[in-house]
Design a protein that fits this description.
Elements lengths: L4 H4 L1 H12 L1 E2 L2 E2 L1 H14 L5 H13 E3 L10 E5 L4 H11 L7 E5 L5 H6 L2 E3 L4 H13 L9 H28 L3 E4 L6 H12 L3 E5 L15 H4 L5 E4 L2 H7 L8 E3 L20 E6 L5 H17 L4 E6 L5 H5 L7 E3 L7 H6 L3 E4 L4 H7 L5
Parallel strand pairs: 4-5, 4-7, 7-8, 8-9, 9-10, 11-12, 11-14, 12-13
Antiparallel strand pairs: 1-2, 3-6
Helix pairs in contact: 2-3, 3-9, 4-8, 7-8, 8-9
């Protein structure tokens, strides 16, 4: 087995040691806070001052709850994102189950405002618990891992927020007593992480679905949390390529190739000649803003000498659209109009794809267009 980054990087090792020893209701905190710790190590910050302030208020004064639909003793499956594309994949992964076999926790909602509004409920802070968290972390190896008062306040509040999540999911478990649990993204979604831990504590089998392309990072990238925080009993994979990577980090007995139902309906488009007129450009996560802007500028320069090719850009759902609207302007470049269809329609109408790092590249392979 290859070493994890938390074994090789002193700051991450200290963080893991500290949070692994911190437990609430017998649930270890490291798995649920590790995605945020990895992001902090990558960016040396938890975001802008305003963003951190708003989230600290949320962590302290609110509890997040999700609606559960189903009966006691069934298989429980959860989807806790508000992403239409991912929701479609989740539904297809479960469509072989009968309705009376599942209890579902489905947070998806077409209206983003309603998605956020229904989840959060006011709860007055327990300052004794917050003090104990502060005291423990201040006296632990974690003391010098996070720098700056507001960043440290953020991690204290986040930890307290995880306490409240543990309470909520314990109540869900006790009420519905699932016989097994299928999560969409337990390695990075702290709610699913906690429910997975609770189920495992009670001897129930747990499964996690692969939901994007798996990459093997030679240098630190917080997306490595995919395999560094895999706490489910089994990881359901799309294919052998992902399994081959993960075998370096996870016991291969826990890796099950189940396929990807989204690929079954895609018809191959055969092209004899390559005379490109339309190119699709897919821009990736906010962490890649800098390289996304470099891609845009490079294509702008290219179009000045190659006026016959039109480029349509699509943005990752997590990107700030306003940051990109002014950049994606020119005679031969524009933002893809989603009124014409989603990414699938964009690829169908394109002669080639330019991509940074996204699962869309896998779909493009099925259409046999150059990437």
């Amino acid at each position: 087995m290859e070493s994890f980054f938390y074994e090789k990087i002193p700051e991450l090792r200290k963080a893991k040691n500290s949070f692994s020893k911190l437990k609430y209701n017998e649930i270890e905190l490291w798995p649920s806070v590790s995605p945020d710790v990895y992001k902090y190590y990558s960016k040396k910050n938890f975001g802008s001052f305003f963003l951190k302030f708003i989230r600290i208020i949320k962590f302290l004064f609110f509890v997040e709850k999700f609606n559960v639909s189903g009966k006691r003793g069934r298989i429980m499956a959860s989807f806790l994102l508000n992403r239409k594309d991912h929701h479609g994949l989740w539904e297809k992964c479960l469509n072989e189950f009968k309705k009376d076999e599942l209890t579902s926790v489905d947070a998806y909602h077409e209206d983003k405002k309603k998605f956020n509004k229904k989840r959060f409920h006011f709860k007055f802070p327990n300052f004794i618990k917050i003090y104990r968290i502060w005291k423990y972390l201040n006296d632990s190896e974690f003391e010098n891992v996070v720098r700056g008062f507001i960043n440290r306040a953020y991690i204290y509040a986040l930890t307290y927020y995880m306490f409240k999540k543990i309470e909520f999911w314990t109540e869900v478990y006790e009420r519905y007593a699932p016989r097994m649990y299928i999560s969409y993204s337990s390695y990075r979604n702290n709610d699913e992480t906690i429910m997975t831990q609770i189920c495992r504590k009670n001897g129930k089998k747990t499964f996690t679905l692969q939901n994007y392309a798996i990459l093997d990072f030679k240098e630190f990238n917080y997306e490595s949390i995919t395999y560094e925080n895999m706490i489910s009993d089994y990881f359901l994979l799309w294919g052998d390529a992902g399994k081959k990577i993960l075998e370096k980090y996870i016991d291969k007995k826990r890796l099950l190739v189940a396929g990807n139902p989204n690929y079954l309906a895609i018809k191959k488009i055969k092209r004899k000649n390559f005379n490109p007129a339309i190119g699709a450009v897919s821009l990736d996560y906010p962490q890649y803003d800098e390289s996304n802007f470099e891609v845009i500028n490079t294509i702008k320069d290219f179009t000045k000498k190659n006026e016959s090719i039109k480029f349509y850009f699509s943005l990752h759902p997590d990107l700030d659209k306003n940051k990109y609207l002014e950049k994606i302007k020119g005679d031969n470049i524009e933002l893809w109009n989603e009124g014409k269809g989603g990414w699938l329609e964009q690829i169908k109408k394109s002669d080639f794809l330019i991509v940074h790092n996204t699962t869309i590249a896998l779909e493009a392979l099925k259409f046999q267009i150059p990437i």
